[in-house]
Write a structure and sequence with these properties.
With 219 residues, the protein is an all-alpha fold. It has one domain: Chlorophyll a-b binding protein (Orthogonal Bundle). The protein has 7 helices and no strands. The longest helix is centred in the C-terminal third of the chain and has 32 residues. The radius of gyration is 20 Å and the shape is globular. The N terminus is likely disordered.
């Protein structure tokens, strides 16, 4: 069981390194091949499948991977705009979750929180039983943020003035350089996808072994 969990944790952490290398690792010939397949109506990621009409490569990280045709859905409030918003949001949360799980295990919990285990899944349930009011308040705050985000998504879909995931948060002024923005958007979406995989892996191994990710990796 321990060896399996170590392998699983290693695979969950590997994407972080791969995500930073992915944008620069793609060669010019590979880009040209992707463009050629798109021109022929074939998916760049799955060459034996057809290119979905809504995936034209204009979105960051779009390589035509949609074997189930989800990008064609346009019903009951779900469309490509909504799906991209959901992907960006969960990608950001995945990166924060994976980093947070490892950070708390390595450096400890915040003041006032008891932790008798390195497993963050067990620590969560300790907080759940010891501080139910805090958990309830957190859920209420998250609900308020979800309502605000829902309004932004709805309005952005109506008028087309807001790109998915854009909350006008740019304290360093990257928005002044369009090329820089494209590069950062690609890095964010790739590392966000890998962050979701890493967070899921850390949560699953914690629930299975009741040990921390670093503990499983190094012991």
């Amino acid at each position: 069981m321990v060896s399996i969990s170590k392998t699983f944790l290693f695979l969950s952490l590997l994407p972080f390194a791969a995500g930073f290398l992915a944008p620069s690792a793609m060669s010019a010939s590979r880009r040209m091949n992707s463009m050629t397949m798109a021109a022929e109506g074939r998916s760049a990621s799955v060459p034996f499948l057809k290119q979905q009409p809504n995936l034209d490569g204009s979105m960051a990280g779009d390589v035509g991977f949609d074997p189930l045709g989800l990008s064609n859905i346009n019903d009951v409030g779900v469309d490509l705009y909504w799906l991209r918003e959901a992907e960006i949001k969960h990608g950001r949360l995945g990166m924060l979750a994976a980093a947070g799980i490892l950070f708390v295990e390595a450096f400890g919990t915040a003041p006032g929180f008891t932790a008798d285990t390195n497993c963050q899944m067990d620590t969560f349930w300790n907080v759940w039983y010891e501080k139910p009011t805090l958990v309830g308040s957190s859920l209420l705050a998250i609900s308020v943020l979800e309502v605000i985000g829902g309004i932004a998504i709805t309005e952005g879909r109506k008028n087309g003035d807001r790109a998915p995931g854009d909350y006008n948060f740019d304290p360093l002024g990257f928005g002044n350089d369009p090329q820089k923005i494209k590069t950062l958007q690609l890095k964010e979406i790739k590392n966000g996808r890998l962050g979701m995989i890493a967070a899921a892996g850390l949560i699953l191994q914690g629930c299975m072994t009741h040990q921390g990710g670093l503990e499983n990796l190094f012991n």
